Amino acid sequence: MTVRLILITAGCIACVPLALCLLLDAMDRKRDACK
Amino acid sequence: MQIETVYLLAFLTYSLLILGVGLWGYRRTSLSSFAVAERKMGLVVSTGTFMATFVSAVTVIGVSGYASRYGWSAAAFSCYGYALGWILLVLAAGRLHRTKLTTVPEFFYKRYHSTALRVFAAGTIILMYSLVLMVQLMAMGVTLSTLAGIGTSLAIFIVGAVFVSYTMLGGLAAVIRTDLVQVVLLGGGVVLAACIVIARTGGAVIFSPPAHLGHFFGGNVQSAGDFAGWMLVWGLGIPTESYYLHRFYASRSASVARLQVGIGGMLVMVILISVIICGVGAGMLNPPNHHDNSAFPYLFKNVVGGWASVIVLFAIMSAVQSSSSGLLHIVGLYFAVDIYKQLGNPDDRNLLKVSRLSTLVFGTVITLATVYVATHSSTLISLIAGISWGGMASAMFVPLFSGLFWKRATRTGALVSSVGGLVCAVIGFSLKQAGIISIHEIYPGLIGSAVLMIAGSALTRPESSPFVESLFGSRKIETAA
Q1: Torsions phi, psi for B363 (to 5 deg)
Q2: What is d(CA B408, CA B400) in angstroms, rounded to the nearest whole number?
Q3: Chain A: nearest CA to B357, how far in angstroms?
């Protein structure tokens, strides 16, 4: 059970940087569109 | 054919392939190609080079050795802190990319108008990376010697000759392409190794590991406080490493600069979990005297055996050479651009020549010094190498992130923060060695650095410049002179 929890949480936290990338890209695109 | 001969032939074939890529890079003769791969790195190449640089010998050999002794707590020790580091790298990536500079110390110069800070940062990076390179080469020498049955000194010499040659010849343009080959061998090898271990243990390595290997806490992480502590050590240390930051300059766009970390981070996590599976498997299958850094190579040479073990040699070799070439490239280039250039006003052609020469000289000296250290123990080198992580973070984190995100940060603040942070880390390290404190030296280093940055900036006036205005305003960023 512990190992499965480790795998799930490690998998989830590894996705956070990618989600942040997509968010910052979207913000960049919005800012460029407003210029 | 004996397995040792197979290892040696495989190693020589691999070395020739990698040298071929280096020779290809030599045909490209611009400083821009050597320094920042002409700023044309696309998503596939940049993700590959990020992963190859991130997964070093320390990751493959060190984490698997740790997992063989402390089991799945290796994940608590590494995975979460690494992810925090990637988040901070993503935050810095876009801004650094848009500056269109060539080195990290050059950012300090443009942001704070301080040649002293630039030279200090470059000197710190060169010293620390030279020592980290020695540790990497040593790990490779020991592994190759164990697997292929050749002497450690000869193994170090051969590995050194290969990576120094292709880094010197092709610069970053060659490094990122060799990284691509290496990350395929490394990732494929480690994931395949994990599958073999899962099959060998009948899935027990994941679903029912022995009690002493199946806990979240263990080894260096005994409590939630230790967990948070190590998360900060990795999380704040990773985003100060120039070999990652440098790749943001070389990326084609801000989006590519960020995504290489976002996508690369996810794939590195797969590699890391595979390494931990191999380590826990070694803890279950190896004899107790091989629950250390020899766990991974020993498991595949003596327990699994046969041709499957060749993949481990490739995986470890790729991990070492890709990280080492990234480090050496930074050492050679930063010496030329951030130190040598300050002595006169050399043109790009001259700087390229000096970059190659300094890469060769540093690489040769580091390789020979590693051969020496492998046969004569050196307390001083192991002490300085031990402080490299905390020292680098303490000297660089606050000035770098303040420079990127705090407009009020001043030259005086940055200078005292960088020098003071390193001094506090060295004091913290000494106190820890003496048994007076038990926390990682990164804490006194970073706290000292942050306090000095705030005090130094509060007492002095910030200087405005087009570069600073463009970093914090809507104005287009000024490119390097």
Answers
A1: -60, -45
A2: 13
A3: 38
CA-nearest of B1, B8, B5 to B317 is: B8
* pLDDT higher at B309 or B381: B309
Q: pLDDT tens digits for A16-34?
A: 999 999 999 999 999 888 8
Closest CB to A25: pick one of B209, B255, B272: B255
Q: Is A21 on the interface with B (CB under 8 A)?
A: yes
Does residue B315 register a pLDDT over 90? no
Nearest to B31 by CA among B246, B348, B359: B348
**Chain B, nearest residue to A12 by Cα:** B266
> Rounded to the nearest 5°, which phi and psi values hold at B192?
-65, -40
How many A/B residue pairs have CB atoms within 8 Å?
Answer: 77
| pTM (predicted TM-score) | 0.92
Mutate to test the interface with A, among B51, B86, B198 (most CBs of A within 10 A): B86
The answer to whether the Cβ–Cβ distance between A13 and B79 falls below 8 Å is yes
Q: Which residues on chain B are in Cβ contact (under 8 Å) with A10?
A: 75, 79-80, 83, 269, 272-273
Closest partner residue to B263 (CB to CB) among A6, A16, A18 is A18
Q: Which residues contact B154 (CB under 8 A, 6 or more apart)?
A: none
A18/B contact by beta carbon, under 8 A: yes
Quote the minimal CA–CA distance from B86 to chain A in Å.
Answer: 6
Q: Say if residue B152's pLDDT is above 90.
A: no
ipTM of the prediction: 0.96
Q: How far apart are CA B297 and CA B284, in angstroms?
A: 15
| H or E element that contains A35 | none
The C-alpha torsion from A6 through A9 and A12 to A16, rounded to 10°, is: -110
Supply angle C-alpha B426, B326, B316, rounded to 5: 95
Which residues of chain B have a CB within 8 Å of the CB of A23? Answer: none
Q: Which residues contact residue A19 at a Cβ distance below 8 angstroms, ignoring those fewer than 6 apart?
A: B262
